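Supplementary Methods S3. Input chains for the assembly prediction are listed below.
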Amino acid sequence: MLGNTFGRIFRITTCGESYGIGKGSGLSVIVDGVPPGLNIPLEYIQNDLDKRRPGQSPLDSPRKETDQVALFAGVAQDGVTTGAPLGLIIYNVDTQDIHIDQYRDYKDLVRPGHAEYCFFLKYGEAGDWCGAGRASGRETVGRVAGGSVAKFILEREGIEILGYTKESAGVTAKEMSFEEIKKNYRKNDINCPDLEAAKKMREGILKIKDMGDTAGGVVEIVAHNIPAGLGEPVFDKLNATIAHGLMSIGAVKGIEFGVGFRCGSMKGSEFNDHPYLDQGKVRFKTNNAGGFLGGISNGEDIVVRIAVKPTPTVSVEQPSINMVTMTEEKLSPITRRDATICGRIYPVAEAMIAAAILDALYLARAYDALAKLDDKWMKLKAPKKSS
Amino acid sequence: MLGNTFGRIFRITTCGESYGIGKGSGLSVIVDGVPPGLNIPLEYIQNDLDKRRPGQSPLDSPRKETDQVALFAGVAQDGVTTGAPLGLIIYNVDTQDIHIDQYRDYKDLVRPGHAEYCFFLKYGEAGDWCGAGRASGRETVGRVAGGSVAKFILEREGIEILGYTKESAGVTAKEMSFEEIKKNYRKNDINCPDLEAAKKMREGILKIKDMGDTAGGVVEIVAHNIPAGLGEPVFDKLNATIAHGLMSIGAVKGIEFGVGFRCGSMKGSEFNDHPYLDQGKVRFKTNNAGGFLGGISNGEDIVVRIAVKPTPTVSVEQPSINMVTMTEEKLSPITRRDATICGRIYPVAEAMIAAAILDALYLARAYDALAKLDDKWMKLKAPKKSS
Amino acid sequence: MLGNTFGRIFRITTCGESYGIGKGSGLSVIVDGVPPGLNIPLEYIQNDLDKRRPGQSPLDSPRKETDQVALFAGVAQDGVTTGAPLGLIIYNVDTQDIHIDQYRDYKDLVRPGHAEYCFFLKYGEAGDWCGAGRASGRETVGRVAGGSVAKFILEREGIEILGYTKESAGVTAKEMSFEEIKKNYRKNDINCPDLEAAKKMREGILKIKDMGDTAGGVVEIVAHNIPAGLGEPVFDKLNATIAHGLMSIGAVKGIEFGVGFRCGSMKGSEFNDHPYLDQGKVRFKTNNAGGFLGGISNGEDIVVRIAVKPTPTVSVEQPSINMVTMTEEKLSPITRRDATICGRIYPVAEAMIAAAILDALYLARAYDALAKLDDKWMKLKAPKKSS
Amino acid sequence: MLGNTFGRIFRITTCGESYGIGKGSGLSVIVDGVPPGLNIPLEYIQNDLDKRRPGQSPLDSPRKETDQVALFAGVAQDGVTTGAPLGLIIYNVDTQDIHIDQYRDYKDLVRPGHAEYCFFLKYGEAGDWCGAGRASGRETVGRVAGGSVAKFILEREGIEILGYTKESAGVTAKEMSFEEIKKNYRKNDINCPDLEAAKKMREGILKIKDMGDTAGGVVEIVAHNIPAGLGEPVFDKLNATIAHGLMSIGAVKGIEFGVGFRCGSMKGSEFNDHPYLDQGKVRFKTNNAGGFLGGISNGEDIVVRIAVKPTPTVSVEQPSINMVTMTEEKLSPITRRDATICGRIYPVAEAMIAAAILDALYLARAYDALAKLDDKWMKLKAPKKSS
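Predicted structure tokens for the full assembly:
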């Protein structure tokens, strides 16, 4: 397996899987690019991990994991970061044989919507059949822990990142300002800050759950107070690296910024965000572009939505194939499942966006710092005042 | 500027801008990871470049560029690749002072929907004001040339990649099979293989053009005959690297695979693609997932759609800001423009997808080759036949 | 801090420091690019860790660390690798306050030959003053554990890597064949397989130790049974990536392949290794080049030597500077130290070389696999037999 | 072929080979990470290219190449850098059939000391047999052009990099200060600033040449006025990335910093460089470490030496193997050759060091810039003055 690292300067490298070797197994993240002198409370990271922890609501899988994070590297005797990479570990707890036995029962079967057929092709029978291995949602524990560090650093810069459920079970939340989203963030188990919509979503999802089925949705993430100028103009546009990070989350099937797919039916004069001066600063009257111009942040909020597929595990009999015998079989209904992951996926999305933004911030400052060595250019760069 | 390279093993590195230094300026791509022994006709690459060349239709900008590609490195005396990186160069032709003068007129102005404000922040007045520099659509010449090499190599594997306009000016093309798309590929200047829809789209776009405005759209790209097993399970899922590549194209505001955003309102039992055996091979009855399971190709066609924003240059007066004097001004209507880029962006999307797929193919084979060293594992890996 | 990852496909990412937060602190390595289906005994890795463990001989620092490695990710219930990244952790044991207090005494002082002045510049007072942090020799624990996995995989390919002390305390070991080196590998605490020389080296080093001083040396590493064709022709020559890896070990001040610096006074006709046919295979009569042609392995043993500086911690008073008060001070003699690290550095060098070779092997196979798709080229590639 | 890019932020990507397709063939470099606003005279780059150009002295190969560089991307109408990647191209001139015919004569033969056997293994018969392709010294044209840009940027920071021949034909230059080296830099065709030694070296080399043979040597490069704090503590130590860059030059067989291999026979108390205060700045009384502590620059000159092997092309009959027929043959003496490349390799070494240092400078500033966001740390970081 390759590709367990995300980022260029701020980098997270993760390992660990759903069950692994059972006792003693865990998930870990090494976080490179952390500044020295930070006092990151473990509770801060734990809080982000708690957002994605299952077993907290009737909408979730009943799997019980405490997801307690421990920090074993990168801080000094006084608990302050030294600049060295952080090492964080979360040991698996719910590794009872009873669940592993259930996985063993259908380990050779293709479960519709799950990745084991592709894993079988890549890793053979030696691949991890137990709880989906690295294809499990449990893999995201490392992302959340690592991204939480990025969020902590960004908050010191005044940058805030909030995700919430925009749409599920046919219900769509109303338009809300960043402040409104923030006010009712995490006020309910579907994490929809439009409380009326939340109620209806919840009812809709539970109805679907009762039918033995699962619900998808759309999650919107807003990054607030972003400095203009982040991102590189060609392949590494900031919206491209954010898209990379978000699309690498298992359940995501689509990504759009600003008005997104609606832009396809808009005219240029409608879509263009018009600039104006706000206390000497360039701002834009609308944010159809979702915070970007040419892939570089323009100072407006970054607004991105992800399409979240319904959880594939359903309590309905489905067609399957036994990969070892290569025969068609039936997969029995499975009871332990998430009714939707919309209420638990947002911390993962927040983590990936935070990591991408912080990485871009480092690169922007690297380039700025060097560019500014040249006095002549410095002079030019500072926007001249009108005389 | 950073981030002018895309890919890990199959890599393209580009440079060049819209006008650059004027005479003698050009765009170039270095293509790493090309196998030896290939006879890639220059006409093959030229053909892809011609797809994106402006000035060929009333839908396009009238800029005249011949975009003639020359190959200066990576092949032997007999024209066959040696395994060394290819060097391709396309010199700018349309560098008349008359156009540069036009750009000079509004070089300090923010053009709505364009990137110069962000460039000004990053590169100051020394940045390239002429024709948008690396933020220009012209930058994509290098992508197309490099991606064309990837397409050529993939075609030898039987993999074909086709893009077409799915939606524009309020008209949506009907559902078509890969063969239907292929049959009418590039049959009209909006490149919509549903010929009825194409006619209506064209009319709608020209009407918008006459109003001094521009149209957006949705472009779908289908990659056919993809081997199952490409992509890495965590951060470098193949759909994630494809999303990275596509979102790095200037005009793209959204990306979705398979049913995409529609998945948000589907139930798990509806969304799941069910497997069956087709002549001893695992196939799926539907392709809601767009060719992926857990971010790894599952053998079905990769189906991806991009939201293309309307070209920002419009013949309508717009509010602006002079970045040097920091005063609000008006931007006059601009006449030389594309009515839409839907009919010219598809080769860029094809190029990025081809590059991402070939890169994943290399990585898959690297890993396979090593994994297969282990006899025991080899034996396991081959799916056992039922007795 | 950046740069805690080594490799492109086979990659090790490490974290952890000498003392860290004290209790609960540890060192960890995430190993990406491990094939599935391997049964890597923990004892194998532990054995490599034991080679570098201090406190085993009068030549070493008396620090007591058990360096017990635990595997928490990447293997299945049966202990076999799944293809997922391995997660290995080694908790610190010797974290008694008594030693930390000693470090606290001179935490603001520049210790000659140590890195804290540079760390102070980069990380300020928040940097890790305790036991040298990531600049400590203890950092290499992660390298050895990760590199051990590479060695295990390479051994299945028949590739063996052995390091030994070639020179120390003015004594030089005689020329030995790979078999001779192997026979007496690790037979003494200076790890010199020329047993006569070993005895003299040991005496010399202990004499230097008695003077309160330390000894340097030269360590040679031989990689045996290497396939020809590894390495990339330009920037990523295999000898270049090996040099990168070896020079990243703290104590290394020089690297040479084959005859190394002696080549400067040789003539071309003397230096050139002449080819001959050995049972239909190309071999070379001499190995002045140390196993490389144009940076690509030529099938002969890779022979590389590293210059190991004498341990900087000495029991002699030395000039120093207090970095906080910026005053000149004296650094008192320090007693807890290694007389030389020649007898403990070879597993680190073996690890880095193993990681570099395995990474090159993956890349070679990635490229081969793709190149071989082309039948025509395949035919050409197989060296034709004479008729 | 992979690995045609060097660097992380300041990156050079090269292509091109010795003869390539003949007419129209060339070498190119794309330089990423160039600040905007620089007026880099083409003459500056040309001057560096002229240093390595053959055919200028009896010590060189008589091949006639003008190596005229053209800049086609990355600068604006006024010739000033825009921040976009630079595109530089150097067309091949000396592509007469007469020389290509000579190469054709022995295209299937292993030439001792050359790389074609390894190329044959990797790229088959389709590989480039003509003039050694990317294994040719001619490949270094792209490095020199790209590295020259780095040197230009570094010089604005006050950093100077000079290489010279330290040793050849049994003659060693005396110890010289940076100023002395600079004074007599490029004063003779062996580029040895010790003019007495230069004369003797030259005589010795010409004597070896008359015997139909070639000479090696040792080249020392000194980087002056380096800020302390460059390089990352673990795998990407600055001396490690410099070693990577230098060892990737074809003829280099060894690298050493400071006293280098001599450290193996020194005691710790001798080797340690002792700090002192010089006008409030930390300096070191000696520079045995060659400018590094823990792989991070310590503010002293970076001093590195490379072992340069004698050119493999000799006018002496040598054993060979025909790779196609797999039979032992004889390789006839070859007349067109360099008597030594010591007098032409130093600009390549300067280029690689410049690229590595500038890249580290970017990374250091990226990290610094972010670290400094934290006021508390800022305060700590500034070394406190004694009261």
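Chain D touches chain C through 127 residues (CB under 8 Å). The first helix of chain D runs from residue 42 to 52.
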